[in-house]
Amino acid sequence: MTNENTNYGQSVTAVVIKDNKVLLARHTYGGGNGMLIIPGGYVNFGETPQDAVKREYMEETNVVIEPKDIIGIRFNMHDWYVAFRAEYISGEEKSDGDENSEVIWLGVNEALTRDDVPDLTKKLIESAVLSEQGLQRKEYNGSTKHAPQSLYCI
Fold it and tell me: Which CATH architecture has domain 6-153?
């Protein structure tokens, strides 16, 4: 769900794979209505992308995840979208009954061939599975008084 704290210019998602299955949610609105997609959503003001993707997964799927590395970034003239590869931590998958109608673990190979999985989701699943590593978080001695910082690089 969105609220007055939502930053509509920043969104996140993550590919979570466990036992060669990917966690997908059947979307209930917009252009993705009826499609199985990787969960995600907007970043709130004052929230890091990592915290946002963890929150979105919990809200939409009841699953706790830990983002590991960045496997994709989409930019356009209006916003940006960051995709993480994330580790399953805990939780039993369950629909939120609002933004999705079902949450399922689907075999990776099946997800890549189904007509109800959109191309963007397929591309990100492929990136999560095929790449050795994405951009990884690195610690460094930079700081700012205004906002938390993250550095991701090869």
Answer: Alpha-Beta Complex (3.90)
Distance, CA of 123 to CA of 83 (rounded, Å) = 11
Which helix (DSSP H) or strand (DSSP E) does residue 59 occupy? helix 49-61
pLDDT digits (tens, 9 = 90+) for 75-125: 888 899 999 999 999 999 999 999 999 999 999 999 999 999 999 999 999
- For the chain, give every domain's residue range: 6-153
User: How far apart are the C-alpha atoms of 4 and 33, rounded to whole Å?
Assistant: 24
Distance, C-alpha 12 to centroid of its chain:
5
Write the DSSP symbol of residue 113.
T
pTM over 0.85: yes
